[in-house]
Design goal:
Strand order of the largest sheet: 3-2-1-7-8-9
CATH superfamily of the largest domain: TPP-binding domain
Largest sheet: 6 strands, parallel
CATH class of the largest domain: Alpha Beta
Strand content: 15-25%
Helix content: 25-40%
Number of domains: 2
Number of helices: 11
Shape: elongated
Length: about 260
């Protein structure tokens, strides 16, 4: 078994020599910024996220829907890009990274300086009106009153006027892909194209369990790309990866970037 530094050097050499590199990021990329994975919260949600993150929930159980997204929006604006985000932005600037495809909705890649980013599941940085389609910074949706998280856990939370569009008073919704909705066509099409043209495809912080996004590394493999997987949990494609590292995303990407001249 080679030492980890040897593996990092191999990855860096392959990365540096590849003419087209695509990186695919999942939740494990953002947790190292201190952004909690809402699925792992114990005892906070009264329903499963799959039932909260729907248009039906917005209309039928608005207290649950709005609290779910208000909590996530508040968390989002309290964190900063980590060393992994910064490393990818640096690699893009130096011409060693052509595209990032992300399942994350936090916008941390763009805040770090990355320009070529396809957001497959939309963005939680903005909200829009269901009626007039006006768009706003997502902090527009945060409650004005104090103690709203404690009120939720006490069973007394009620959503307020923050849900209402300032322009037409319609209902606001986060600009993320809700369950039952299709992925945005343009980012998906661009992601498929990048996967098929990549010589090196790098998966970071994703267990590759969410479809159809998990088809992208398979498309890259089918076209002869080398596959790197950096994830602390097993994935269905581990056996097909040229390199699989069970390391943290941020420190690994920073180390690889440092080896690329």
């Amino acid at each position: 078994m080679k030492q980890n530094i040897d593996v990092l050097q191999e990855i860096a050499l392959a990365w540096q020599s590849a003419k087209a590199v695509a990186v695919f990021t999942g939740a494990g990329m953002s947790t190292e910024s201190g952004l909690p994975d809402f699925r792992s919260r114990q005892g906070l949600w009264k329903q499963r996220p799959e039932s909260l993150a729907t248009l039906a929930a917005l209309h039928n159980t608005p207290d649950e829907f709005y609290f779910f997204y208000q909590w996530r929006i508040r968390q989002l604006w309290q964190v900063e890009p980590n060393a992994g985000h910064q490393a990818l932005a640096s690699l893009e600037r130096s011409g060693h990274l052509q595209h990032i495809v992300t399942q994350n909705v936090d916008g941390l890649h763009q805040r770090a300086g990355s320009q070529q980013v396809s957001e497959l599941h939309g963005s939680l940085k903005t909200v829009s009106c269901l009626d007039c389609r006006a768009s706003y910074d997502s902090r527009q949706l945060l409650p004005r009153q104090e103690g709203w998280e404690a009120a939720y856990q006490a069973g007394t939370y009620r959503y307020g006027a923050e849900y209402s569009c300032p322009s037409c008073k319609g209902k606001l919704r986060p600009d993320v892909v809700l369950f039952g909705e299709h992925l945005p066509e343009s980012p998906w099409r661009q992601s498929v194209q990048m996967a098929r043209s990549a010589e090196l495809f790098v998966v970071v912080g994703s267990s590759l369990l969410v479809s159809p996004a998990n088809q992208l590394p398979q498309s890259a493999l089918a076209q002869g790309a080398k596959l790197v997987i950096i994830n602390q949990e097993p994935t269905p494609l581990d056996a097909q990866a040229t390199w699989k590292l069970d390391n943290k995303a941020a420190e690994t990407l920073a180390a690889v970037a440092a080896l690329i001249s």
